[in-house]
Structure formats: structure tokens, C-alpha cells
Amino acid sequence: MKTRFNFTNRDIVSIKGFTREEIDYILEIAAAFEPLAEKGSDMLKGKVLAELFFEPSTRTRLSFETAMYKLGGNVIGFAEPGVSSVKKGETLADTVRVVENYSDVIVMRHPLEGAARFAAEYAHVPVINGGSGAEEHPTQALLDLYTILKAKGRIDGLNIALMGDLRYGRTVHSLAYALSLYDVKLNMVSPELLRMRTEVLEDIKTRIDVTEHRDVEDILPELDVLYVTRIQKERFPDLGEYEKVRGTYKVDLDLLRNAKDDLVVLHPLPRVDEIAVEVDSTPFAKYFEQTRNGVIVRMALLALVLGAIKE
Amino acid sequence: MKTRFNFTNRDIVSIKGFTREEIDYILEIAAAFEPLAEKGSDMLKGKVLAELFFEPSTRTRLSFETAMYKLGGNVIGFAEPGVSSVKKGETLADTVRVVENYSDVIVMRHPLEGAARFAAEYAHVPVINGGSGAEEHPTQALLDLYTILKAKGRIDGLNIALMGDLRYGRTVHSLAYALSLYDVKLNMVSPELLRMRTEVLEDIKTRIDVTEHRDVEDILPELDVLYVTRIQKERFPDLGEYEKVRGTYKVDLDLLRNAKDDLVVLHPLPRVDEIAVEVDSTPFAKYFEQTRNGVIVRMALLALVLGAIKE
Amino acid sequence: MKTRFNFTNRDIVSIKGFTREEIDYILEIAAAFEPLAEKGSDMLKGKVLAELFFEPSTRTRLSFETAMYKLGGNVIGFAEPGVSSVKKGETLADTVRVVENYSDVIVMRHPLEGAARFAAEYAHVPVINGGSGAEEHPTQALLDLYTILKAKGRIDGLNIALMGDLRYGRTVHSLAYALSLYDVKLNMVSPELLRMRTEVLEDIKTRIDVTEHRDVEDILPELDVLYVTRIQKERFPDLGEYEKVRGTYKVDLDLLRNAKDDLVVLHPLPRVDEIAVEVDSTPFAKYFEQTRNGVIVRMALLALVLGAIKE
Predict the structure, then answer these.
(1) pLDDT tens digits, residue range C102-120?
(2) pLDDT at residue A87, rounded to an integer
């Protein structure tokens, strides 16, 4: 492969750190990695990934592990802070400066905004943000883009809706920003209380067309991609409001009767009941394939930051 | 090795899914794998096993991990449900459909009957039951058979007793069924409250001779194999009954004075006090070797379902 | 490399099991392993390390894992006893006799004195003590020596202070013994309540000069190595005493103004506030490098006990 950009030792903290050209390059590398997910590779043999998960995760953690193993590397770390020396009062800076001596790359998930950036400033090895606070989840955004690209053959020109919790979900923040680098029409569908924050919206609107909606029915027939997120009941001060909204956003066969034949339905998972199980067996459903794409994209990212891709 | 049966992509959910010929074949493959447990192999290089342990386990979990590593593969997963997205309300079907995208084979332990079969129906990768409910533990049954075969040179013609908790122990259910495919004499030794359930017993009796006993002393002199299980105190409504029974079933040197010289004593472990530690250093004791055989048999099973054994 | 000593299958339970010549040999092997920490090796391919951590640990656990992975081996085990069959009432002896059948070497951390020695007596595979009770942490002592040797080019002739909790810290017990095999001047700096126990001190004094101090200021200008440990608040019956002592032992730039230019400051980590963060960027600070040396030394130890170093 041609290495158009040098990602060696680069931190992946925010999707905002990437240009569109860089993202396109990552997606190209990912596509080239597809066969390696089947047959494995020794590309990262002898390399160690440290996972520091200060918040539990199944998907992100396991898919980074598989990505590392498929490339011949290994994984250390903790899946919850209770087992770690954090309990003994160690600062995050110290934990990072210790763990970088055990590893070649760090993936960190943390409940606090900015934690990954802070870690990246201390670490000499590359730090990948596996989700921090409510703001950032850059590798999820990249795998979402990759899934859209694989399913539709392109990103430019698509009509895309993000639906559900647009306020607290870190996934949709990173994804909305990433999509704004492309020539897409973006529809934000959410209850009033879960609208995307003004500052995020204003930033995106400087680059692309964005419209906001309470209902999905009106725009559904025009959509190419419907990205659904879980609405977390506990966010709502008024449970009646929650119940009303919840029904509105159930994606089922009835709703999808008005969709384009090639509409792609995505979800970062876990879902609870935003998408009816009857949708799973339809061609619309790409949310399980999405998780497989997460492995591919993370393989590409690990290989890139560890300098394993040579011209 | 000659591949007489095709196990590629096959689920291992219940011992009842196997014919005697298939079991014999698996035990043959296991024997051929013995040297690989010492020197290792690259047979499963690039392959990833996902362990979904919804119930804690040391033995089964660690021996599957070692089996995978000895064949050059890797392992992801969780050792207890608390760390996983199950906490976020994800269904088992969804967890399986996500994890199959991160892995080439799944091993699952679950407190509920039928959970492994349910998972196998959803997964496109092979699912191995690492113990579900009180009914099934097929890989334990296979390693028990392998241990008997290694120790005695044959299974047919043996006089075998299963002793202890025959009602709730999933190990003895799977093992009793497996043994009923061979020409053995089977003795069930248990307190009244922990007798094997009638439906299990009736099924086994259609194929082989089975007798039930309260005491082991009478049949001990004739036994070739004594398989001991832990009696769980908490099962007994009447503690006095428990205390009486408990004493009856302590396997110690005094009891073993009347045993054949080549009696084999097995136990799925962990033991509490069913077998006195003084027995550990006698030639009767094969229960620690049994755990080593677990690695061998699981190596064979992983290689088989992953299609790594070629003619 | 020349193999002057045979460590194959040897347990590493106590630093007292080593002669000075053996320790020198281990440090030489470690130095030769430095390049392997960068590029990796297949030296332990097919080998499995079992970690039995009955007490949580980040540093020791993760650095053993990285050491194993860098040499091509793999790791199984548990990071806390809750996930293991210990909960089902299994004895330590049984756990060890099971796990040795899954592994080629065992690393154990345990809250009780003597637990590692007990395990070593039962296991047929080598057992490495990863910290037991308040007495022993032999691999930490070896990595401390290695760090001193790397930083100063020698151990003999150095003036060394151990400061902080000398009573309960297992690290300083093992290190003090190890240093007493060399021609060093040893200074023990601690509050009255945390003085090193008389029996340990008397033993060390049979070999080298040892002096005890309440304050570090007087001896600081002469020191080559200052080894700081965390004082655990909960040890003090009188909190006023703790507060007074705590201030005395803060290593900061002000204190270090009177130090030799090439003073080496070490700490087993995690630190809380015994060393000010302003010291981190000075040439004195070797405590993060110390963690990296832990990987190197443990690589050497694993290769040695697994017989992977051939003449």
C-alpha cells in the first residue's frame, strides 16, 4: 500500500484531529485489511496493546483485542478500574506513565471528558480514545463511516438521519462531525430534550446542510442511512415524555414500509427496543455487520499508529 | 490423521448430539494431540476464541484458554457478566450476534438450561457449551471418558460408579449419558434426595445396566472407576440428613483398602472433603491428571470445529 | 549466552534463595534481554504462564504479562480471587495442582506470608512469588537492583537510603536483603513506628553497615540512591504522628537542592505524594524507568526458569 499520510505514533483522541483526506486514507487501509481479518497476520508480532478501561465496555474492548490478535499482537490491561492500582490513589498521569512502559500502544475509555487527551499528553506511546465522557468516540465514528461506505459505495451525496439521543451519546457527536466533512444531507431526529447541543450543531452547519426533526416519518422515504441510538430512560425528568418519545422511535417493519429499498439501518449497540428484532433479518439491518467492521477499522488504526504499514 | 467425521463449524451443545463412533473419533484425535500440549502448535494461528462466562469458572475457562494458546490461537471475552454489556440490558441473542463478529468460535457458560443451544441457533460460528444449567457439560464428559480410556486402556467392560450429587450436578448427567453409549456396568451411588432424576435414568437404562445404591462399600470391591462429585450442603432441606450422608461418602485410605489395586478415582473438582487428601498420593488418584486431560480434549475439539484437522 | 547457573524449573520464592553470584548472573541475562523487549522473540512460544492473583495488582501483573508476550508466550489466570473457584471452598494446594496442569509456570500474589513457598512445594512447574504477605517480593528486588546497576554502572560502593514504610513494605524487605549481598552503605530512614523490624536489621548488619535515621536531610548530600516508599496512613494509630511524618518525607526540588547531581530516586509505585510531581522531569527521577526494567528482568526470569536459555 502507498502511505500517503504518516500516522506512526499519532494519538487518536478526537475525530476533529482528522482531515477528510486522512479519513479517506484510513478507510482505504481498512478495506485493504479485510482479508487479514480472515487469515490473520504477523504485522504486529511482539507488540503489546494496553487497555485501560475506567468504564466497562464489551464491544469496544473486545473488538480492539480481536484487532490486535488478528495482527499477531497481544493485549494487557484492565476491564474495570476496581482491579487496578487506581484504588490505591494513583493519578491518571502516573498510571499512564507506568503502563506506557509495558506497552506499545494504549487504548483508554474514561467517564471524564478530556481524559484521553490528558493521557496522550503524558504518554510517549500512541493513545487511542476508546470513548471519553459524552463527547468523543473517534474509532466508532470511523467504523460507522466505513460501514456506510461499504454498504452504499460512497458517502458523498447521501441523505442521512441520526436518531435518538443526540445530546448525551458520544457516538453521534463524533459521527456527526465526521459526516460534516463529506457532502451529505444530515437530519437530526430527536425529542426536544435530547436535541444535539447548539454549539455542535452550529459547527456542523458551517460545512453541510442540517435539519432537525421530531418525527422520522416525514423524512424516512428520502433517507439512505438511518442511524439509531438508544434513548436512556434515566435522562428524562418526565417519564410521560419518555414514554411518548420511546414509541415514536421504534424502528419496525411497519415504519420501514415507506423506506427506500436500499436504506441502511445502523446502531452502535447495545440496543434495547429502538429497533424491533423483526428488522434483524431484513436487508436494511447492518448493525451486526457494523461490529465486524469495527474489528477491521481498529486493525487498520493499530497498524497505522504502530508504524506497521510500509510503502 | 484420517478425518472420518466432519466437525467443521459444528456446535458442541450436548453430549446427546454425538454417536459413539463420533466420540471414539474425538478421543482418538485427542490422543494424537498429546505431543502438541507439550511443544505447542500454530494450528489455530490467527483464530480467536470468545469466552462468554455468565457464571464464574476457573477450570473450564482456564483450560479452554490454554487449549487455544497451545494451538497458537487467542482468546477474548468475559469471566463474569458484570463487566459486559449484559448490564446495559442487551439480550443474549444480541450479545451472541455481536461477539460472533469478533471471534471464530464461542465457548459459553450460563446458569440457564438451554442457553448454549439458544446461542448456537443464533451464531454463525461454532458454539461450545462450557456448562449450562444443571443438565449439560459435554466437554467435561468427553475429558472424563478420555481420562478413563487413558487410565484403563478401554471403556467397554468397565464397572463404574458415579457417586455424590447425581441430581443437580451437570457433570454426571452428561457423563452418564456418554457412558451409556459404551458397554459398561453403571452404579449410581447417592443419598435419596440426590438420586439421578427418573427420566435420565430411564433413558440410560434402555442401553445399559444401571443399579442404584445408598452405600458405596458393597460395590466398591468390584469397581474399576469411582467418579466422585461434591455434595452441595445448601441442597439439603434437613441438615442432619446432610451430615449423615456426608460422612458416608468420604473417600479415604480406609475405604479404599477394599478396592481393586487398579481402581481409578475421578472428581470434576473443586473438591471440598469428599476425597481425603491422603488419597492424593496414591495410584488411585487421577483427578489432577483429569484436569490436564481437559486441555488435551479441548485442544482436539477446538481444532475440529475450526476445521484445522486435514486429512 | 553462557549459562553459568541452572535455573530451569527453579522456584523464585524468596530473594534469600539467591547467592550474590546468582543475582549478578540474572542481572547479566536481563541486560542481554534489552533488545528483545523492543523487537520481541519466540523464545517462549507455546508456553503458558498462569497468574494467580489473590490480591489485586496492576504493575506486577501487567509487567509479567508483557514479559511473557514479548517472548512469544501466553498468559491465563485470575486478577482477583472473586472470579476463581476459591469461592467454592477449594484449598490453595488444590488450586495449584489444577493450574499446574494448564500452565508451564505460575506467578502468584497472595496476602499471606509463606503462600508462595507453600504453592511451590505442591507445584511441579516453577512458581514465582509476585508478592506474599509483608515479607517477600523477590522480583521487585531484582528489578530494583537492575535499575540501580543500569543507572550507576555498579552496585558495590554505593551509599543507599531506603525511606518511608520499612516495617510493612514487602518491597524494602526483599531489597534490603538483596543489597546486603553487595558492598554498600545502607541507610534506613523511617518514622519510629515504621522502623525495619529488629530481626531483619540484625541479619543485614551481619554483612554490611546499616544506620537508622528519622530525617533524610542529614544524609542526603552523601547519597547515591534514595529509594522512597509509600507510607500508608492506615498503619498509624495516631494521625497527628502520621501528618508530622508525612511532611518530613516529601521528596521535592527544595530537598533535592542538597543532593549529588547523579542521585537516583526510586519508588516501587504507586506513589501518592511522597515524591512531588516537579521531580518527575529531573534527571534524579528513575521510578518510571524502573517499571520498564521490571519487564526486562521478568523476561529474563521467565526464560531462565523455563529453561529457554541455552549455552
Answers:
(1) 999 999 999 998 999 999 9
(2) 63
CATH class, range B138-291? alpha beta
- DSSP annotation of B13 reads -
- Three cell numbers written together for B88: 446495559
Which DSSP symbol is given to B12?
Answer: B
- Helices B287-305, B20-39: crossing angle, 10 deg rounding: 100
* Cell numbers describing residue A21: 483526506
Query: Is C88 a catalytic site residue?
Result: yes
- Distance (Å) of CA A7 to CA A23, A126, A294, C220: 11, 10, 19, 46
Q: Class for domain A15-136+292-305, per CATH?
A: alpha beta
Which stretches in chain B have pLDDT values below 70? 1-3, 82-88, 234-235, 247-248, 311
**Over residues C221-246, mean pLDDT:** 84
Residue C267: helix, strand or coil by DSSP?
coil
Active-site option among A88, A198, A206, A310: A88
The three-state secondary structure class of A272 is coil
3-state secondary structure of C102: coil
Peptide bond into A270 cis (omega under 30): yes
Gap between the Cα atoms of A109 and A122, Å rounded? 16
Fold of the domain built from segment(s) B15-136+293-305: Rossmann fold (3.40.50)
| Residue C137 annotated to the active site | yes
Q: Which residue type does C28 have?
A: E
Q: How far apart are CA B27 and CA B10, in angstroms?
A: 17
* Amino acid in the structure at residue B258: N
Q: At what angle do helices B287-305 and B138-152 cross, to 10 degrees?
A: 120
Residue B59 and residue C98: Cβ atoms within 8 Å?
yes
What 3-state class would DSSP assign to A229? coil
Which H or E run contains A97?
helix A92-99
Count of CB atoms within 10 A of residue A17's CB?
13
pTM of the full structure: 0.95
ipTM score: 0.94
Of C46, C85, C97, the CB nearest to B58: C85
CATH of A138-287, one of 3.40.50.11690, 3.40.50.1980, 3.30.420.100, 3.40.50.1370: 3.40.50.1370
| Virtual torsion, Cα C291, C293, C294, C297, nearest 10 deg | 180
Q: Which residue ranges does chain C devote to CATH 3.40.50.1370? A: 15-136+294-305, 138-291
Distance from CA of A100 to the nearest CA of C (A): 9
With beta carbons less than 8 A apart as the criterion, state whether B264 and B158 touch: no
Q: Which of A46, A102, A103 minimises the CB distance to C39?
A: A46
What phi, psi does B103 have (nearest 5°)?
-145, 165
* Range(s) within chain A of domains with CATH label 3.40.50.1370: 15-136+292-305, 138-287
Cell numbers placing B262: 487398579
- Per the DSSP assignment, residues forming a β-bridge with C129 are C108
Can you tell me the distance from the alpha carbon of A243 to that of B264, in angstroms, rounded to the nearest whole number?
Answer: 63
Q: Do C56 and A97 touch (CB under 8 A)?
A: no
- Nearest residue, CB atoms, C62 vs list A76, A88, A97: A76
C-alpha cell at C244: 508530622
pLDDT along chain A (311 residues), means of 10: 83 96 98 95 97 91 98 93 66 96 97 94 97 90 98 98 91 96 97 90 96 94 97 76 75 96 96 94 98 98 95 54
- The CATH code of the domain at C15-136+294-305 is 3.40.50.1370
Residue A25: strand, helix, or coil: helix
List every span in chain B annotated with CATH 3.40.50.1370: 15-136+293-305, 138-291
Give the H/E segment covering residue C127. strand C127-132
The span from the CA of A64 to the CA of A131, in Å, is: 12
The answer to whether A66 contacts B47, with C-beta atoms less than 8 Å apart, is no
